Amino acid sequence: MTKPSAGLESSIWAPLKQQHRNGATTKSSSVHESLRSRSVPPPPPSTMTAPAKPNSTPLGTRTSTTLAAGLTPPQALHRFEQACQRLRWKFLDLEAAYQRALAPSAWVFTPEDAERNFKVDFYEFYAWIEQAIVLLLLVFAVSVPRERYSSGRAGSSSHAYHHNVLRALDEDTNPLHEVLGKGDVNQALWKAKELRNRWKDAAEGRETPPLKMYDLAWIVGEVLKGLEGGYTVARSMVATEEIMVDYASDSGEGWDWMVEAMDWEP
């Protein structure tokens, strides 16, 4: 027996939207206000510009509707819904961590330790952002190449896959280009990736740029808005092609793919 994908409206964003309809302050709204009220104003456009793209080689490679990863488009959409549930959970944790980073003495942390821990939290949060994007791309049978790019900087090649995930969205022919590959959402994604690269060193005790250099509310808010837009596009495509998710055949997997080693990342 088959049934349509439950979707984000009923499983992921619904609690926040329902609270808003009931007149209560949503948690996501409080995160935006909390972060924005304690952060610097949005940086000038020049500081938010996405990093220059090394070349114009198309990165989105179409495959068959049965994907190399063994997922059909509706199965990839279902995993995206699960990834967004995880993102929502981590989003609430990130907001709480930000409060601790701004007032560390209340939790008996030094400012340095609190900020370092938040940066590690953000690094982990970005991993779920990237996971969600990869799954959205798989809905459209678009794979991300793993070849390296040359940027003239030592060690940059190790970040090629993470770089290529966002570059794939820049292609005009990518079905997700309009919602994730341009405008504020795309700038926020590149900025989030920049922080991911900078702040991963925090776990090793290296000095990294301070939190208040960045408008984190704007970055996170735009990224989540873009993912919701991407979901709308993906769900529409699946519905248009009248593809139904067979939950009975997929029930054996459940959430196991999340807790297995993060094989989706090379």
Task: Give me the secondary-structure topology.
Elements (H helix, E strand, L loop, with lengths): L7 H4 L2 H8 L5 H11 L23 E2 L10 H30 L8 H29 L2 E2 L16 H11 L6 H4 L2 H17 L16 H25 L6 H4 L5 H4 L7
Overall description:
- There is one protein chain.
- The chain is mostly helical and 266 residues long.
- The chain has a domain at 28-39 and 69-142 and 156-243.
- Helix content is 55%, strand content 2%.
- It contains 11 helices and 2 strands.
- Helix 3 (27-37) packs antiparallel against helix 9 (216-240) and helix 4 packs antiparallel against helix 5.
- The relative contact order is 0.17.
End-to-end C-alpha gap: 35 Å
Unreliable stretches: 1-13, 15-57, 63-68, 150-155, 245-252
- How many strand segments? 2
Largest sheet: 2 strands, antiparallel
Which sequence of SSEs, written as H and E, runs from N to C?
A: HHHEHHEHHHHHH
> Helix coverage percent of residues?
55-70%
Shape: elongated
Give me the side-by-side strand order of the main sheet: 1-2
Radius of gyration: 19 Å
Strand content: under 5%
Average of pLDDT: 73
Class from helix and strand fractions: mainly alpha
Number of helices: 11
List descriptors.
single chain; 266 residues; mainly alpha; two-stranded antiparallel ribbon; 11 helices; 2 strands; 55% helix; elongated
Short description:
This is Fungal specific transcription factor. The chain has 266 residues and is mainly α.
